């Protein structure tokens, strides 16, 4: 029996530190699917804005930089990359300066419209005429892919989220200050949940999954069960290959 593969879209949303990236990549890898981190796209544009020296309250300038930026995304879960003007910036976009500015940049309506269009194009390329993609972010189920076959909203306690973010920073060689990370998590929650365009919220038809006490294996098992229950998993035999 062939391993089942994903045929369709799984949208994984939720605030920072809930394990979205690890879970979404792991699910995509296990199910032979593409993987897209929409937040990385906003971070890449934010990095471009910072390099251009545009003020964060200059919405027109921010939108101009976003429109001029050559942004590329690799969607293989084993090697997801973020290309800014042809250069991989996956490390730079996780730096504190970008983290502190990304909510302001992502709140600009023109930037969200531009990136949502690009995100939908990437999703379409990975799923037509057949295929699967796991997409993570903050507005995937509500805005980017409202027709996703499965929408999951991950949550976790504030302490668990701060701990995970701190551990991730340390593992990737960035300064790991738990108090600062905890403050960043609360600040981004407030900004992302209260922005005028595409605020962070759970889609009405999404499944809520609290990851506070769950291991990665348990989260992946639950996501796989949900995808299977929605009829999104196929094998070569079922697909008629």
From TrEMBL:
Name of protein: Cytidylate kinase
UniProt-recorded Gene Ontology molecular function terms: ATP binding; CMP kinase activity; dCMP kinase activity
Keywords: ATP-binding, Cytoplasm, Kinase, Nucleotide-binding, Transferase
Annotated region described as Disordered, given as residue ranges: 164-184
GO cellular component, one term: cytosol
Family per record: Belongs to the cytidylate kinase family. Type 1 subfamily.
Keyword Nucleotide-binding found: yes
Protein's organism: Actinopolyspora xinjiangensis
Main location: cytoplasm
EC category: transferase
Record-linked InterPro entries: Cytidylate_kin, Cytidylate_kinase_dom, P-loop_NTPase
Domain Cytidylate kinase: residue ranges: 10-225
Biased composition range(s): Basic and acidic residues: 171-184
Catalytic activity: dCMP + ATP = dCDP + ADP; CMP + ATP = CDP + ADP
Protein localization: Cytoplasm
An example Gene Ontology biological process: nucleobase-containing small molecule interconversion
Protein residues bound to ATP: 14-22
Keyword Cytoplasm: yes
UniProt xrefs under NCBIfam families: cmk
Pfam families cross-referenced by the UniProt entry: Cytidylate_kin
């Amino acid at each position: 029996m062939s391993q089942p593969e994903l045929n369709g879209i799984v949208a994984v949303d939720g605030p920072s530190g809930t394990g979205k990236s690890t879970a979404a990549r792991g699910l995509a890898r296990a199910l032979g699917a593409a993987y897209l981190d929409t937040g990385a796209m906003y971070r890449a544009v934010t990095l471009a804005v910072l390099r251009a020296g545009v003020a964060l309250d200059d919405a027109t300038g921010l939108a101009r930089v976003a429109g001029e930026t050559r942004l590329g995304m690799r969607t293989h879960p084993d090697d997801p990359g973020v290309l800014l003007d042809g250069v991989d910036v996956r490390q730079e976009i996780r730096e504190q300066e970008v983290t502190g500015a990304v909510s302001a940049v992502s709140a600009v309506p023109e930037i969200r419209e531009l990136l949502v269009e690009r995100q939908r194009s990437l999703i379409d390329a990975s799923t037509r005429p057949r295929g699967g993609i796991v997409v993570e972010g903050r507005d995937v189920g509500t805005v980017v892919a409202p027709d996703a076959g499965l929408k999951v909203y991950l949550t976790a306690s504030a302490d668990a989220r701060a701990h995970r973010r701190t551990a991730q920073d340390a593992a990737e060689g960035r300064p790991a200050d738990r108090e600062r990370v905890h403050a960043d998590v609360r600040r981004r929650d407030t900004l992302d949940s209260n922005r005028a365009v595409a605020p962070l919220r759970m889609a009405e038809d999404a499944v809520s999954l609290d990851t506070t006490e769950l291991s990665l294996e348990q989260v992946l098992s639950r996501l796989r069960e949900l995808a299977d229950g929605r009829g999104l998993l196929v094998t070569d035999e079922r697909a008629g290959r």
